[in-house]
Amino acid sequence: xxxxxxxxxxxxxxxxxxxxxxxxxxxxxxxxxxxxxxxxxxxxxxxxxxxxxxxxxxxxxxxxxxxxxxxxxxxxxxxxxxxxxxxxxxxxxxxxxxxxxxxxxxxxxxxxxxxxxxxxxxxxxxxxxxxxxxxxxxxxxxxxxxxxxxxxxxxxxxxxxxxxxxxxxxxxxxxxxxxxxxxxxxxxxxxxxxxxxxxxxxxxxxxxxxxxxxxxxxxxxxxxxxxxxxxxxxxxxxxxxxxxxxxxxxxxxxxxxxxxxxxxxxxxxxxxxxxxxxxxxxxxxxxxxxxxxxxxxxxxxxxxxxxxxxxxxxxxxxxxxxxxxxxxxxxxxxxxxxxxxxxxxxxxxxxxx
Amino acid sequence: xxxxxxxxxxxxxxxxxxxxxxxxxxxxxxxxxxxxxxxxxxxxxxxxxxxxxxxxxxxxxxxxxxxxxxxxxxxxxxxxxxxxxxxxxxxxxxxxxxxxxxxxxxxxxxxxxxxxxxxxxxxxxxxxxxxxxxxxxxxxxxxxxxxxxxxxxxxxxxxxxxxxxxxxxxxxxxxxxxxxxxxxxxxxxxxxxxxxxxxxxxxxxxxxxxxxxxxxxxxxxxxxxxxxxxxxxxxxxxxxxxxxxxxxxxxxxxxxxx
Amino acid sequence: xxxxxxxxxxxxxxxxxxxxxxxxxxxxxxxxxxxxxxxxxxxxxxxxxxxxxxxxxxxxxxxxxxxxxxxxxxxxxxxxxxxxxxxxxxxxxxxxxxxxxxxxxxxxxxxxxxxxxxxxxxxxxxxxxxxxxxxxxxxxxxxxxxxxxxxxxxxxxxxxxxxxxxxxxxxxxxxxxxxxxxxxxxxxxxxxxxxxxxxxxxxxxxxxxxxxxxxxxxxxxxxxxxxxxxxxxxxxxxxxxxxxxxxxxxxxxxxxxxxxxxxxxxxxxxxxxxxxxxxxxxxxxxxxxxxxxxxxxxxxxxxxxxxxxxxxxxxxxxxxxxxxxxxxxxxxxxxxxxxxxxxxxxxxxxxxxxxxxx
Lengths: 353, 258, 358
Description:
The complex is a heterotrimer. Chain A is mainly alpha-helical. Chain A is built from 13 helices and no strands.
C-alpha cells in the first residue's frame, strides 16, 4: 500500500530568500576569491565561485524548507538561467568587438579605394577591390547554380522516376556535406592547375575570381537543389492535378503554377545559400589568390574578396592591418546578415511553411 | 479518499477575457458529476480550475474560492503539485508518454513522488491497471511502448496512470470523444466502478453519456458570444433530463439550442 | 503521358492560364482519354496530335539534362579527387595513417601522414561539443520553456542570425580578443591542475588546441541551440499537461515529457553541429598552433586539423603536395559524411516513429 502525504500545504521559501542567498554568495565569493586571492583570484573566477555558491546554497536551504523536489526545481531553473548568462558573454563579446573594432576604418577612404600599393605600414588602404571581388564571385556562382539547381530539382520532383532520380538525390545529399576546403582544393587542382593552363596563352595556373565562383558553385549547388526540392514537394498535389484536369500541359503547369507557388521558399533558400557563400573564406583563398588592386575581370588574374582581404590583413603584423581587417569583417557581416534577415522574414511570410 | 469539492463564486480569466463567471456548486464525494453545455461555455475551463491546470497558461488566472474538504486549494501556502496529485485529470485525447513502456507510464506519477522500491511499484502498477480494467489485456506486455495500444486501451492506460497516485478526485475532460462506441462503453463501465472510491467530475458533450453515467448534472451556458459561461442549473441527473427547472436547460436537452 | 490539348488548337491557342482555377483532383497522372467513336474519324484530329518537338519535350530534356549535369558534376568531382590523391598516396614512403609529419614534396623521400592532423580535427571537435552542447541545450530549454514568449522569440531570432555569421569573424575574434582570456585560463589550469597531462604545458601560452576548441564551441553553439529549441518546442502539449496533472514540478515535467521526446532530435542536432565543427577551416587556421605534434596537451602551443593544414599548406604545395592534401581532404570528407548521414537517419527514423505514435 503506498502511503503518500495528503496535505496540501507546504512550507515555502519567502520571496526574498533567493535574493538573500545570492547576495550572500556574492559576498563570500568576493571576499574569498577576489580579495583573498583564493585559487588565483580574479574577477571572473569570483563570478564563477559566486554562481556555484549560490546554487549550492539555494539547494541546501530549499531542500530543508521546501523539500527536495521543489529544491531541485529551483536549482534547475537557476542553472538554466546561469547557463544562458554564461553563453551570452562570448556571443555579446563577438558582436561588441566587431562593432567596436570595425568602426575604426569606417571612412570613405576605405570603401572608395583598394589596397594597391599599400604595405603593412601604411595607414590608408581600403577594401573596394575586395567588395567588387566578393560581389562578382558570388554573383557568378549564383548565376550558375540557381538555374541549374532549380531545373535539377524540377527534374527530381516532377519528372524523375526510378534509378536516375534516386541516384541524383543521393549524390546531392552526399554533396551537401562536402567541407568547403575540399571544394576549394578540387577547383585548385582541377581548374587552376589543369584546365585553365590548357587554354591560357601562357600556361600559368589560373587563379581568378571565376575559379572562386566555381568553388562556391560546388558548395551552393547541392544546397540550392535540396532546398528547391523541398519547396517543390510542399506544393500540394491537388494544385497540379487541378491544372492537368483543365488540360494544361505539364511544363506549363510547372512554370506557371508550381514554381510561382514555391517561389518564396525558393528565394529564401537561394538567399541563405548566397549569404553562406559570401562568407566563405577557405575555398576562395585557395583559388582566387588574393590581390591588392582592383580587378574587375573575374576571368583573368588574381582577385580578392572580402573574406580573403580580412584573412590577409589580419595576418599583417602591423598596427594598420587589423583595423582594415575588422572594418572589412563588419562590412561582410552586414552584407551576410542583411541577406539572412530578408530571407528569414520572407520565410515567415511564406504560406507554404 | 474521495473528498468533497466546493466552488464559491469561481471566475476564470484568459488574460482580459472572462471565460466563466461566478460558478457556485458543491460536488459530493463518491459521486459522478457531469458538466454539460454547448461548446465554448466554459465547462473545461471550470474543470481545469479545479486542479489548477488553468493557470499553466500564461496570463490565465482564477478568482473566487475552491476548496477540497474545506482546504482552500488556491491558498498561497498551498503547494500546487500536491493539489494536482490529489486531483487527477484524464484528457480528451489519450496521451500516454510515447517514449515510455506501459509499466513506466502507469508508475510515472509514483516515481515522481519518490517511490523507488521495485516491489511497491509493481504492486501499485498491477492494482491501478486492474482498477482501470486493463490488467488482463496488458499483463504480459508491460514493457512494450504505451503508444502501441488501441485508442480505448490507451485511454484506460491514462486512467490507470491517474489513479495510480491515489488521488481524491478524478477530473475527466471529454474522455470518450476520441474513442469508438465500444471503448466508450468500456470507459463508462469503468467510471461506474471508480465512483466507489473517487469523486469524479466529467465534462461531456454527449448528453446521453451524462444521463447514463452521472449522479448529478450541471448545465453551463453563455448568453451570447463573448459573454462568460455561467452555471445555469445543477441538480440530480434524472431531474435535469426529465424535468429541468430552467427553460434554457430544457432547450438544450431537447435540442432546440446548442 | 501528355494531357490532351483541345481539338484543333495550336500551342498558342491554349486556354489562358490566368483564368485557371485548379479544382478537384484526379489521380496522380494526367488521364489518358481514348476516343471510342465508331464513325471512323481519325482520333488524332479530335484529341490533337502529340508533339515531338513542342515545348513539353524540350522542357523535359532541359530538366533531365540539368539533373544529369548535377549528377555528372558530383561524380566527376569524386573521381578527380580520388585520381589526384592516389599518386600521392602511392609515392608516400610513410604510412598515411600513422605518420604524423608532412613532407609530401620532398622529392627524395616524400612522406606525409594524417596522424597529427586527424587527431587535432577529432580532438578540437570533441572538446567543442563537450563545451557547447550542454550550454546549447540549456539555452534551448530556456527559450522553449522558461523565458517569456516575446523575449524567447527575439532571442531565438538573434541566435539564428549568429549561426549565419561567417567563420572568419570568429577566427578573427578568437585571435585578437579571446586569446588573452584563454591565456589566463591556460595559466590557471596549469597552476592548479597541471598534474593532468591535458594541462601539462607551462607556457608561453598563445594559439593552442584549447583556444581553437573554445572558438569552435562558440561557433557551433548557435546552430545546435536553434535546432534543439525547435525540437523542444515540438513536444506535444498534451504530454506536458499529462505530466503536470500528475503533480510534477516544472523541471520534472521537462524531465518526463520534453527531454525523452526530444532525445533523437537533440542527437541529430548535435551531430549536425559536429559536422560543422569537423569541416571548419579558417577559424582553426587562425587559432591553432599549426605544427605536427601529436599531443593531448591542450594548453600548449600546438594543434592542427586536416582543414587548417590544407589552408596553411596549399600555397607552397607542388603537385604531390596537392595530392597529399586532397587525400587528407577525402578522409575528412568521409568522416563528415558518416556523421551527416547518421544524423539524417536518426531524423528520418524518428519522423516515422513519431507519426506512428500519434
